[in-house]
Amino acid sequence: MVAKMNPFKPSAGHVPPVLIGRDMVLADFEEGLDNGSGAPGRLMRVTGARGIGKTVILAEFKRMAEQRGWQVISETASAGMARRLLDRLRPKQRSFSFSFEPSVSVMNVGGSLGGIHYEKTQLPLTLREAMGLRLDELEKHGGGLLVTIDEAQAAERSDMVAIATASQHLTSEDRNIAFVFAGLPSMSSKWLNDDVMTFLRRAQPERLGDVPLTAVSQALADTFDSTGIPLVGEPLRIATHATAGYPFMIQLVGYHIWHRARRRTANMKGDAVAVTVEDAELGVADALSRLGDTVHGPELDGLSPIDKTYLLAMAQDDGPSSTSVIAERMGKDVKYAGIYRMRLLEAQVIEEKGYGKVDFAIPYLREYLREHAAYIRMTLGLPDD
Ligand SMILES: Nc1ncnc2c1ncn2[C@@H]1O[C@H](COP(=O)(O)OP(=O)(O)O)[C@@H](O)[C@H]1O
Ligand SMILES: [Mg+2]
Q1: pLDDT (tens digit, 9 = 90+) per residue, 69-114?
Q2: Has residue 166 been placed in a domain?
Q3: 49, 52, 50, 73: which is closest to 61 by C-alpha?
């Protein structure tokens, strides 16, 4: 029987059919849970590029913790995060009075010093107290509390201070609590030089990267097989290679090839339902165009005009670029170009490839830049050469 539903999940935060190549980080977290308060895995920071699988890892951590009878509070960083955390920790009737305080007061410096004062002095204390009370309940039955913060690079300092303070106290009291922060690599540099954030420096770093192609190949083959559509031989090789080991692309490639094969073979039986080279090639092309819309476009939108100029200069090369040649192409000195090189390295858009060389860290970004170079130049107000 051929399945009717596409098993692949090419959308942010959706748990994939097979979580490929993440055994180490899952084992680290599991150890943290089982080894009790003070274990390294009880305080973690998970970093990696967009689409590498950070949100999915947090979902997996949540599942593991819940299996052990823990309670999990998952937040995504944005203004007012600590306050939202507090609201979720407090018994319903008590949170009532808090929800009445307009949350905008925190940002509106002008008229509401009371709100600011509250955030600075009371919130960390209250958060710690609320977590402590919740832990009193949970620990009675051998449970604990896991707090996960996604998109941590976007957190406001006051929120992080509140959470850090609460965390430090509860950990020193040996409470059964765990914190995991996930975010873009820039989060490390954003917080780690801040004195108040020394606690994050102690967090176990887990850098998520691309997954090995042998594991990708196996997972693709298994997933297709489980739906009654075999993917083997050359089509499997094409599919595997096209993913570049990038988790989001694995889902896109799987999804679009499956879709093509399923549609073509809708009324067929037996061996005829296997994926063909043509299915694989067309599916990869579909996947690539979706990757551009959902990853490359937004990634570039978040960069400054000069960052983009730097990337366009790199895209002229077929492989790693020499940093001095890039500076020359930009018409700038090496020192100036170096500032943008650092920024792009930090954002994990590019990576170092030996001495004085850089390359793209996001799969197919080179191809995307080339294809859209004229348009990008236009938006930057640069001449079209
Ligand atoms: N280890 C993995 N193996 C296979 N697919 C994965 C893996 N991790 C994530 N994915 C898929 O990649 C996509 C992006 O995952 P997500 O967790 O949203 O990334 P991030 O939060 O880092 O931007 C999702 O479609 C998800 O199903
Ligand atoms: Mg995410």
Answers
A1: 999 999 999 889 999 999 998 876 544 444 334 444 344 443 344 4
A2: yes
A3: 73
